[in-house]
Design brief:
The structure is a homodimer of 319-residue chains. Chain A is 34% helix and 26% strand. Chain A has 319 residues and is α+β, with helices and mostly antiparallel strands. Chain A has 2 domains: 4-137, 60s Ribosomal Protein L30, Chain: A, CATH 3.30.1330; 152-305, PurM-like C-terminal domain (Phosphoribosyl-aminoimidazole Synthetase, Chain A, domain 2, Alpha-Beta Complex). The first copy, chain A, is globular and about 60 Å long. At the A-B interface, helix 1, strand 2, strand 3, helix 2 and strand 4 of A face helix 1, strand 2, strand 3, helix 2 and strand 4 of B. Strand 3 of chain A pairs antiparallel with strand 2 of chain B, so a sheet runs across the interface.
Chain lengths: 319, 319
């Protein structure tokens, strides 16, 4: 079994660098250069075994997801991913586990040209904290508080798949590999986030569920929203496994989709469709912002629908 | 018991901001501005209960230490601390625990004008990962690989106190509150690190013990060192509790001192003394760099002395 320094060497040997990394893994800290005229965007997310993923999740999937959830936050800020640190706490210095973890982690990192520049390896119950850094031209970060009444509410891709997988996992009944893949291997919408720079008025990523996450935008912008449940983008697989009444709670209150939810004036709709299409991502208008506070959901039959829970909070539920 | 969002609000309410924090806690990520002509310095360290601190350590001490070990890394790079993120994993959403943790964490943060800009709160076995960000004028970061043969080896303050406290804790016999304070409340040598900019040739902070940490400088610089054990700076309290033969292993192989070890040509000695004195820190020359690889320690009687262990590695020992 390798010690801590051997593990770090193992990680370092697999990392691909970038020109703006003046000093990467192997000193007291990394030295990085933010380009002139750009701001630095920083986010940090932790995954705990048994809380954020089922304990039997493969190390490669854990590695992928640990980075994906952070890149998703950068995407929601319309930032270009650049660097990350990785703090990994493991029961044992299991070199094979770390290698498999890195397979997933570095696969995604290399897809987005993200350089792992440092971190820590410690012994303890399995948990992973990634801090991701991105850059954005000054003043162009996409915030939660820029929405206006009348703006349309959009989501990318489809929502509810990850929550569907989790529901199947909990029920220990039939399960869909496609849904499970969306839970284990979320796609951070990085290109979509960049495409929305200067177009969207506010944005957030869907990690805790549409109701909770859109709720943050509403709170930050001092607005409410009307959502048409019939317009929620739904994958064919989710529709095959869950009927409408089962789907809505998954789509509104289930987390882990890592799609983007954003707002924009109706006049921008065609530009948004083109921008998203250019990066191969679908976008769907699901409702509109209103001055009256609160989230108002309506069924296709025109009836009011109240989301069951206010979204996932780590201290109140178990993934 | 508060939920996750209530905990975050609790933390946010106590944070003091800075002008270069364009967006702090409360969005998908923080937006920060690195001043022109400066590089970004990033480090990340995790503390795990029962591994990096005894489980009964007070939350305020844990909070202090979680930030201190990261600021110590910035100090070793001669960087000015600016911002940090905090990822905190807790068994329960215990608001009182978090408040006490913040007492220590924010006390140190405010001493160094460090702004907490984001992070994550999750449920699980107690562990804390802090990612700290500093800035340094372009090209002035103090690295491990800049040392030259003939340079003198310095350490700040005194070493061995924290390891002495840990030895007393393990023996469950008499203990010194002064030594324990150095274990629980390490002082990151931030001002000393800044004072050494452009003077020291290489530097590192002493987290894993002098032998291991100086060993990293030697490996990075392709050199060896001769250390005179009689010159190791020793606090009166450590000397009161441990005789020489007991002290040397603590000073060479014990960790957690968070002093700086650095190298500089002998011609710089007077300048270094003045620079350190201006920030109220003592500095002691303990040996010299040589071209022959390896760490050679000599007792005051001129005998060779071989350090017992190669320093602390998290996967091989328990703090």
């Amino acid at each position: 079994m390798p010690g801590e320094f051997a593990l770090i060497d193992r990680i370092r040997a697999r990392v691909r660098s970038r020109a703006d990394v003046l000093l990467g893994i192997g000193d007291d800290a990394a030295v990085l250069r933010v380009p002139a005229g750009h701001d630095l965007v920083v986010t940090s997310d932790t995954l705990v075994s048994g809380v954020h993923f089922p304990a039997e999740t493969s190390p490669a999937d854990i590695g992928w997801k640990a980075l994906a959830v952070n890149l998703s936050d950068l995407a929601a800020m319309a930032a270009t991913p650049a660097w990350c640190t990785l703090a990994i706490t493991l029961p044992d210095a299991d070199g094979d586990w770390v290698d498999a973890f890195l397979d997933g982690f570095l696969d995604l990192a290399q897809q987005h040209d993200v350089c792992l520049v440092g971190g820590d390896t410690t012994r303890g119950p399995l948990s992973i904290t990634v801090t991701a850094h991105g850059i954005v031209p000054e003043g162009l970060a996409l915030r939660r508080d820029g929405a206006h009444a009348g703006d349309e509410v959009w989501v990318t891709g489809s929502i509810g798949d990850a929550a569907g997988a989790l529901a199947q996992w909990r029920a220990r009944g039939p399960s869909s590999a496609k849904l499970r893949y969306r839970l284990d291997r979320p796609t951070p919408r990085v290109a979509a986030g960049l495409a929305l720079r200067g177009i969207a008025t506010a944005g957030i990523d869907l990690s805790d569920g549409l109701a909770a996450d859109l709720g943050h935008v509403l709170a930050a912008s001092g607005l409410g929203a009307r959502i048409d449940l019939g317009r929620l983008p739904t994958s064919r697989t989710l529709a095959d496994h869950f009927d409408e009444a089962q789907r809505w709670p998954l789509q509104l209150s289930g987390g882990d989709d890592y799609e983007l939810c954003f707002t924009a004036p109706a006049s921008a709709a065609f530009g948004i469709e083109k921008a998203l299409a250019s990066c191969g991502v679908t976008g769907t208008v699901i409702g509109q912002l209103v001055t009256e506070p609160g989230l108002h959901c309506t069924t296709p039959e025109g009836e009011d629908y109240v989301p069951a829970a206010a979204g996932f909070e780590h201290f109140q539920g178990v993934h």
